């Protein structure tokens, strides 16, 4: 299938293999090579009312292995859709796809009615723990060189198309649909469950399949329409000859009724390892023939698509031709008689490959149709005829196939220019490189996180093959690929077989390439020096990848009189550390001016790639795929109660791929106070390739705003201003395994905060007036441990934190859990908090240091939050709360001693729930807090509140408290009075929780 990187759309590819030549000797495959052979005959009938397949399968299984077999493993893949506990289901949920999980029973699928006979004798079937795997116990052991006949009826309930096999109305995508032996090879049985992310491995053989269905279905299947069934062939020809209907007439894709008469179409193909068919009553059929380069084979090509998608599919036959010709030339001639590409429902990527037939996900986008067809048809080579183990080594089919797809169907989306000639997939590659999150290419499909599967397999493999091809020379590389194809056609090549062939053809040592395949280190070379001597030029190059590898350097000279820029390329030997290359200069008569790492090297970090890397300032934001050190500016506006409206600029270097050193500086001018205010941060991330630490982030945060003002009896108000400088060290712990949803980190943060003060004195006119009264400096320290499990269902997190100031230490623990209901996007949100204060002096602790049920700007003595009116006690802006400490939504700051404050301990439980109905982002919340009673009283006080929350985003919510415990109710009656409920509407604005330093990775995930 196919993934287009950043968008993670997978275009799956097609394949075919066959077994005709599986005799006992396999001279081309190497000494001792053997493979099993399975010839398959299926009769199947479609019930398009209840969506069932009724089938009978007969397989002839030949044991060419040197082992005696007492059982055969079978795949029963339709069972993947039977329950919500299958590996397919679990992986889909992990990848965030919950459609099957939330599906109705009647939309799911399964296989049943199995009754196996082996050579005519009853054989028992043992269903494995994963219900799409089974072991067929053979009544008699199968000796080496012997064969047996396996047959059974089977019935398949066709699910909705959650992944690959299924139906969408009366459009059928029938793949991975019949009982099928797992591969038995030199390393044993390869039995694995059906997965969306992770493909297949099957035995070669001959297929005879007859499909019975209502007469007016157009049927596209693996192989050739067999025998004397010229009727079906003539019908297809007549459809293909019809003029295209005006596409405006077909805005909808309504299904015509099924014909009462049924037909049976027979298909036959040899040297294939899978069989799929697709049926639709609405398709437009187009047909052409293709002469295969390098052979006298003439292939009949069909494309079938929905009438409303004529625009997207108008060149679809050309796309098929591009693939058949391109791959035949690159690897070896296409041997089959037909090739088909059809439009159909598909959820596993943008397309999916089967021998001689491919399905392309429904779209009217011409570019996507072209890319997907070229990719999927190309799989006839890399999956089809070269039947590698796709599940275990996805780079061998998806990776190599994408390498040719990129050459034959280069994407020319809007990004190409900004990305230095790369397509959008390169963004994900560059970003995962920058954060040291790539994985070795020999990783198995199911072990990749989704983003890595799309990036490592579909983008890194092609990029690395480009590198190898440039190093070996295009002709040598092509000769090696031809030899690999010839030797392994219709067989099961392993990585070592690919390696053997390529090593044999390369004139240089290509160890480095195979080391690179198994490395996860990001590729980064830099040009560090450029020295011209009298008659030569010496270029210094650094290899920062961490593995031996060669770099190609492009050297450019001064424009000559005819306006041409002389250019030369030179390779370093494979190296680590530093290397130099020398070019004759005076000899060539060229005055070399600059050197850069060649674009053929998959270098993610281009800023250090040239001998000169100027600084560059750009507007807004963007990608950085150039040798310039880019930064961006954009306008900034802000508001708070004290400074009023502020305007300035945001100057930053947040980009993809992200920089190790990042910054955002926001200087602004306050139109009200007339002061310059600012916020910003600098950060540097240090990555580790091994060990428990994934990265270390060093940050420095600074900000200064006004936080209070007084215009008491004066015309021009006086302001109180704070300055904060906070260095921070974050240790991000490596995930236990790449797909893990667990994140853990330690944070150590120091604070220096200066707060300027105002005092009041009585003037000669007996009026109090404010005056500036110097400033106070505060120093705090914070140590925090965070644990987060962001799994799809019931994600949770917890944190332990200690904050120390001059007079106190606050220890606290907080936990959050989302309990998913069995309803999409509906959950119960549970939060628990416990905090304990330790005082070091006998004096009463300033209010702001106390534990608070409702946490407002006044509690934010660390100035970590962004509050619109951080020191106000009344008015809507003062009702800004944060989900910290008690998590209450209603404060009582207008009391002399507010309700819900504690200088000892505080425990809180905060619940909120999505409404089980409707789409409005409304939640019901309830908060409960307990703390010791105030001075002079003993015992514990308990307060509570409940109300409605308008949950706009994870960062912005509005709250309306409706039910209050007595203390809070008393406050609201006596202080707020009329319209008290409106006055209690509060809000949260958790901008401090935006992970600015991880923004590039976050943006990538959003796509
Ligand atoms: Zn593919």
Would you kindly provide a brief summary of this structure?
With 1007 residues, this protein is of the alpha+beta class.
Provide structural commentary:
The structure is a single chain. With 1007 residues, the chain is α+β, with helices and mostly antiparallel strands. It is 16% helix and 40% strand. It has a 17-stranded mixed sheet. Strands 3, 4, 6, 7, 8, 11, 17, 19 and 20 form a 9-stranded mixed sheet that branches. A hairpin with a 7-residue loop joins strand 38 (693-710) and strand 39 (718-733). It is globular and about 115 Å long. The two termini are 19 Å apart. Zinc ion is lined by residues 1-2, 11-13, 375, 379, 398, 401. Residues 1-2, 11-13, 375, 379, 398, 401 line the site of zinc ion.
Q: How many runs of DSSP E, i.e. beta strands?
A: 53
Largest sheet: 17 strands, mixed
Which residue ranges are poorly predicted, with pLDDT under 50 across at least 5 consecutive positions?
A: 3-29
Gross morphology: globular
State the helical fraction: 10-25%
Number of alpha- plus pi-helical segments: 16
Cofactors and ligands: zinc ion
Query: How far is it from the N-terminal to the C-terminal residue, by CA?
Result: 19 Å
Average pLDDT value?
A: 91
Radius of gyration: 34 Å
Multimeric state of these chains?
Answer: single chain
Determine the structural class based on helices, strands and strand pairing: alpha+beta
Strand content: 35-45%
